[in-house]
Amino acid sequence: MPSSPKSILETFDNPHPDRAYEIEHIAPEFTSVCPKTGQPDFGTIRLIYVPAALCVELKSFKLYLQSFRNRGIFYEDVTNRILDDLVAVLQPQRLTVISEWTPRGGLRSTIRCHYPT
Amino acid sequence: MPSSPKSILETFDNPHPDRAYEIEHIAPEFTSVCPKTGQPDFGTIRLIYVPAALCVELKSFKLYLQSFRNRGIFYEDVTNRILDDLVAVLQPQRLTVISEWTPRGGLRSTIRCHYPT
Amino acid sequence: MPSSPKSILETFDNPHPDRAYEIEHIAPEFTSVCPKTGQPDFGTIRLIYVPAALCVELKSFKLYLQSFRNRGIFYEDVTNRILDDLVAVLQPQRLTVISEWTPRGGLRSTIRCHYPT
Amino acid sequence: MPSSPKSILETFDNPHPDRAYEIEHIAPEFTSVCPKTGQPDFGTIRLIYVPAALCVELKSFKLYLQSFRNRGIFYEDVTNRILDDLVAVLQPQRLTVISEWTPRGGLRSTIRCHYPT
Amino acid sequence: MPSSPKSILETFDNPHPDRAYEIEHIAPEFTSVCPKTGQPDFGTIRLIYVPAALCVELKSFKLYLQSFRNRGIFYEDVTNRILDDLVAVLQPQRLTVISEWTPRGGLRSTIRCHYPT
Amino acid sequence: MPSSPKSILETFDNPHPDRAYEIEHIAPEFTSVCPKTGQPDFGTIRLIYVPAALCVELKSFKLYLQSFRNRGIFYEDVTNRILDDLVAVLQPQRLTVISEWTPRGGLRSTIRCHYPT
Amino acid sequence: MPSSPKSILETFDNPHPDRAYEIEHIAPEFTSVCPKTGQPDFGTIRLIYVPAALCVELKSFKLYLQSFRNRGIFYEDVTNRILDDLVAVLQPQRLTVISEWTPRGGLRSTIRCHYPT
Amino acid sequence: MPSSPKSILETFDNPHPDRAYEIEHIAPEFTSVCPKTGQPDFGTIRLIYVPAALCVELKSFKLYLQSFRNRGIFYEDVTNRILDDLVAVLQPQRLTVISEWTPRGGLRSTIRCHYPT
Amino acid sequence: MPSSPKSILETFDNPHPDRAYEIEHIAPEFTSVCPKTGQPDFGTIRLIYVPAALCVELKSFKLYLQSFRNRGIFYEDVTNRILDDLVAVLQPQRLTVISEWTPRGGLRSTIRCHYPT
Amino acid sequence: MPSSPKSILETFDNPHPDRAYEIEHIAPEFTSVCPKTGQPDFGTIRLIYVPAALCVELKSFKLYLQSFRNRGIFYEDVTNRILDDLVAVLQPQRLTVISEWTPRGGLRSTIRCHYPT
């Protein structure tokens, strides 16, 4: 994995920057690797944001998420990092990332991060 | 496509203008064309508004939505434009447009615009 | 149809007038006629109210709704009229009427009226 | 039916009286008799409360609800009475009773009572 | 059962302690024993919290929940105790425990506890 | 009601008469009147057939079903009559009519007729 | 309970005796009493039959089912008896009775009887 | 529209021609135009086949279905034509085409064609 | 665990031994222990049988299933053993046992056994 | 990827080889790579078999499926290969593999293979 997957993210100019409207993208095919067991994790990443000057380009967002495919990273960490990367690139008015994970050991987990906190 | 699809929209007098009540129309058969790939996009347009003096006539609203059938336009743009056109024609007390799109590249998107912001 | 279907509505004394509690009746078998096309419309009428001194008697409410069976009337109009009639007869603390209509021309509509506005 | 079904209700000491927490019991097998037609009514009773010093014992609550099995009583009345009886016995911080009834004459009804109002 | 199942719980350092984000773990395979009848109870435990310095380690949380497998304890008690143990170990910003139980005697129960109250 | 609603049904030539294929039309907005109580009945009519030389025209089929709107007729009778009328007009290879009725008196009914028996 | 609830069942002449068609009535509001515990049982009775000369009249079928309301009888027994009574009265071409019961002790039961076996 | 949309379909060699296995492709975004009203129709095309020497290439199948986007054609006709085209190009062991259409005039239609009949 | 949990099973005389009818009991609260990992397994046991002279008594069947609560046994083994025990005790005309297990390692399993094979 | 992922599969002795019973394992977290676009594919693998002398060990089956994670292979091919590998290792009485894939280009695909054909 590249040291900076954030550089994969591309943007385009918000066509209606004068209006505070909401954009939601749901990616149900997210997969990464558990750093403890080496086993793959599967989940859904949900991004909701109000753009300022920039919107995230969909294909680059998909490739950005795919960059985690073979990377070992915990639930809590990956969710916060995706939020950090998107906030850095988009500088949005507000932005939420939610990750919902398929069960492990009978436990089903969800992590929810917001910007600004 | 005509330069001004807004002109397709017809109205009728609100039969109960003294009461702030809510009207919702859901159009699950919306289709337009992706300007980048040329492939058709499919989605549901959800309109919710509180009328002032005018209501939108249903058949003209359907024809208005059909005018996007062969037009190349992005998710964010089409949602804001439908809101702009309806606000211009109806001058409502408040109005919301939500577009929900079938998955592309494994990503499912939703755009939500409100008037007044 | 009688000129005043409101007269069909019967009431009984609220057995617990000292408490502000909520009563909901859902009538999924409502049908009227479109005044434009002459075709039957089908929908669900949802009544939610907090009674004052009077409650609406169920059988008379059913007969009241049936009085619209062969009457030509628009979605927005019928919803507001049912609210007007019930408010006149019950003089409730608050009352809501919601009509949800089966699709016409691919469009699914819902009207929501509240008293007091 | 005994003149006071309330006496059937038993209580036990709230094991954590220092914390305002919520208890919900849903009884989908409630049945009583319509006093007008003599036909059985069927519904679900939903009890939600924040206990003070006492909790309702589950088996006694079940038997209390069964005491309505052959009793003629209207929807609005039975819901308020269950609330009155539980409030008298439990003296809770707050308490809600909701009754949801299977359709009669094509109409589906729900009654919602709260303490304090 | 050990006198202190709380000691089973392990923690790890919150990787993003500067952000107030939410973690949810749902355990649909919880089972304990009814102290009155000796029969097993089955339910789902839902934990939602905003971490401060510490997060609960998933495997230890699973083992902690399993420690109730053969223990006689009431619904209200077990829910409050899980909350007490997690609050003592994690010292979170806020924390909720919800237990939802499969029907007993036709009654379906849910208990909801919050910290801080 | 006209003495022969069957005359409302129109047909068009089967465009692929050489192939035994199946056509299904579902009409969830059927309503007639109970001859015993005078109350409206509501149901769904499901037509499944393999055409021979003729197909039923959709709009005429809708108008045919609407001709029962104010007619008093029993469940068993209306289902068999629709089958009889369609068989007479279409002379199909095989044809099924199923009527599913909304509950009356807590009873939900379905009638299924086939041609040939 | 009368010694012969079967006598409650009324019939009417099959309006289309020349065709082997199917009639289904679903009664989701059945209740009887467990002869062992004295507690009420709740279930759904499903009747499917092909009539010969007679059909069962709906209201009498409902009253027949209500005659079990306060009667102590086991799942297996009640299902077979309903089948026996209906076969005796209707002498149908074929007839099925299925009873589906709400959970008791965590166990959900279904009984299915057919005539002819 | 080209006179022969069939020419859009591309194939690839069946990688396991020795085994009779089943391939299903579901296209929920099909749209064509009603030749009578000029209004767009929307539906789902379901293709199920057992390949012989050839399989249909997915992208070409999508483009083939898109070629109907602005074409006026009836439900019964389009379903049979898709079957004819696919049978001509693939020469499969067996092949089914099912079209399910969104409601028009309150009627929901499904067409099912099989090869060999 | 006793060496022979089969001895827990009690029976009662089939009240209608002359008719081949079907009895189904579904137990969604089954739990045993994985003999490899020592972790609890959770599943649903589904029993379907046609009785001969004997029926299984429900409470004893529940206790029989509970006897596996702390026993280490594989999915395939427990399903076959339950079938063997029930066949030995009931000597039924036919009997099926199906076990459906909650996911382990992302894999969801079901075992189905029939008597006679 | 190893040249022979089949070698990952481990087996254990069927504990009840005298009975023809059915084992089903569902793996909803399967992912491989499209050899044409290089994009990841996601799907569910469903395995149903009747064992002869051997059963597949669950953990090795999971690791076997994970060996496709970064491998470029078509839907039709991977489904047939999984069937071939399992048949070679288990020599079962009968075995089915079904792969269900998340939508690509608006098309949802399913492949079904059986042994023996």
Runs of chain A with pLDDT <50, length 5+? none
Main β-sheet of chain A: number of strands, strand sense, barrel status? Answer: 4 strands, antiparallel
Number of helices of chain A: 2
Helix and strand element order of chain A? EEEEHHEE
Strand order of the largest sheet of chain A: 2-3-5-6
Oligomer: homodecamer
Mean pLDDT of chain A: 94
- How helical, in percent, are the residues of chain A? 10-25%
Strand content of chain A: 35-45%
Q: How big is the Rg of chain A? A: 14 Å
Distance from N terminus to C terminus of chain A (CA atoms, Å) equals 29 Å
Most extensive contact:
A-B, 19 and 17 residues
**Molecular shape of chain A:** elongated
Secondary structure category of chain A? alpha+beta
Number of strands of chain A: 6
Summarize the structure.
Ten copies of one chain form a homodecamer. With 117 residues, chain A is of the alpha+beta class.
Tell me about this structure.
- 10 copies of one chain form a homodecamer.
- Chain A is α+β, with helices and mostly antiparallel strands.
- Helix content of chain A is 21%, strand content 38%.
- Chain A is elongated, with a radius of gyration of 14 Å.
- Strand 2 of chain H pairs antiparallel with strand 6 of chain J, so a sheet runs across the interface.
